[in-house]
Design brief:
This is Serine aminopeptidase S33 domain-containing protein. Pfam families: Hydrolase_4. This protein is α/β, with parallel strands linked by helices. It has two domains: 30 residues, no CATH class; 156 residues, Alpha/Beta hydrolase fold, catalytic domain (Rossmann fold), CATH 3.40.50.1820. The chain has five helices and nine strands, in the order ββααβββαβαβαββ. It has a seven-stranded mixed beta sheet. Strand 7, helix 5 and strand 8 form a beta-alpha-beta unit.
Length: 198
């Protein structure tokens, strides 16, 4: 219990009144960047650069040209340390979403756990070219994902590969795995369902 003379600990608007809750909060908080976020920014009061420095994450954002000569936005996150990476996690967002905000915070949490994380804004989503939300054919999007994820894999051939998809991203993740002939070790839909494709 919190001593009577010690006020309850408050973090991100959550009042922690007992040792068990405090212990749990302290165990998950180091990986969880969500408490930093605000309604107006996933980085809270910090700049993007300050946010990544605070969480000891190296972030890279760039564009690739796909087979249709469209600019596709890509991002990657990794721990800013010399420790060996545990694996490569490829992330795919859902329909009418993008690889920033909450999805970005999820990527940061995974990177803080020791993984190289990469994500792509699907055609017509986020900062990628294309009509907003327009997906007349899923095959070019699957090809974009394979092109980007394979480019990351080239620099890290020995890392275990995982794919994480939310909503439409989960469906695309299945198609990516089928196209790559099961070259991903794990497939994760939404939050908790993990399938072994090894």
């Amino acid at each position: 219990m919190v001593p009577a003379n010690e006020p309850p600990m408050i973090k991100s608007g959550v009042e922690i009144e007992n040792d068990k809750d405090r212990e749990y909060y302290d165990s998950v908080t180091p990986l969880n960047p969500v408490p930093d976020a605000s309604e107006s920014s996933p980085y809270g009061d910090l700049t993007r650069e300050e946010f990544y420095k605070n969480h000891q994450i190296l972030h890279k954002e760039s564009f690739m040209l796909n087979q249709q000569n469209m600019k596709i936005c890509t991002q990657s996150w990794r721990p800013n340390s010399t420790l060996q990476l545990k694996g490569l996690v490829a992330m795919l967002h859902g329909y009418n979403s993008e690889s920033s905000w909450l999805f970005e915070l999820t990527a940061v949490a995974i990177a803080k756990a020791g993984f190289l994380v990469c994500a792509i804004d699907l055609q017509g989503h986020g900062y990628s070219d294309g009509l907003p939300g327009h997906i007349p054919n899923i095959e070019p999007i699957v090809c974009d994902c394979v092109q980007f994820f394979d480019s990351i894999k080239v620099d890290h051939p020995k890392l275990l590969r995982f794919i994480y998809g939310e909503s439409l991203g989960g469906a695309i993740a299945i198609l990516v795995c089928l196209k790559q002939k099961k070259r991903m070790e794990w497939l994760n839909f939404e939050w908790f369902n993990v399938w072994n494709f090894g």
